[in-house]
Specification:
Layout (H helix, E strand, L loop, with lengths): L6 E3 L3 E5 L5 H10 L1 H7 L9 H14 L7 E7 L5 E8 L9 E7 L8 H15 L4 E7 L4 H14 L2 E2 L4 E5 L2 E12 L6
Parallel strand pairs: 5-6
Antiparallel strand pairs: 1-2, 2-3, 3-4, 4-5, 6-9, 7-9, 8-9
Amino acid sequence: MTKTPQLSVDGGFSLNPLSKVALTPILNAFNEDPESAYSALPWLDKNKEIRQQIRDMLFDVESQDESDEIHFWSIVHDESKEFVGLIGLGDELQLLHSNYNLGYWVRSKFRRQGITIGSVNTILQWLNSRNEFFRIEITVHPHNAAGLATAASVCNGWDGELVEEFIGIEIANRTVPHRIHIIDINRGGDS
């Protein structure tokens, strides 16, 4: 199977395979802006202790490191070694023939600098280099204007498409409509 690689992002950032050493930086970033964390990480339960939920997530990610089912990274500023955010290819899929869903969370002080787009492009280039077909989903709440703009930009760069129908996603025991963008990597001529 394929291990999650360390990747370099233009502009002086690295994508480091996510591990338990990221617990404290993630918690510090969470405490800076909890609402954005809950929005970007909808599996977080506001009624449960955050430290344990993040620790459990890190354990799950590390235990699947070589499975090729998921790939998650910490985004780190190369020079300062500062934690910038999280990005990953997960397995919470909405469509039948998808391989991964793409999700990300960038700390507020690093937003609007092109870091998310650069990180996404680096990950998609890595998938492209594997010479296998991958279908990637990007699900976005329809009121998240920045998320919709990012997904549209990624789709424009990678010949992706927006699914016309809204897809209901269960979050905190509620069905919440989302937009789904799809990107096919190494589709080939007949797929």
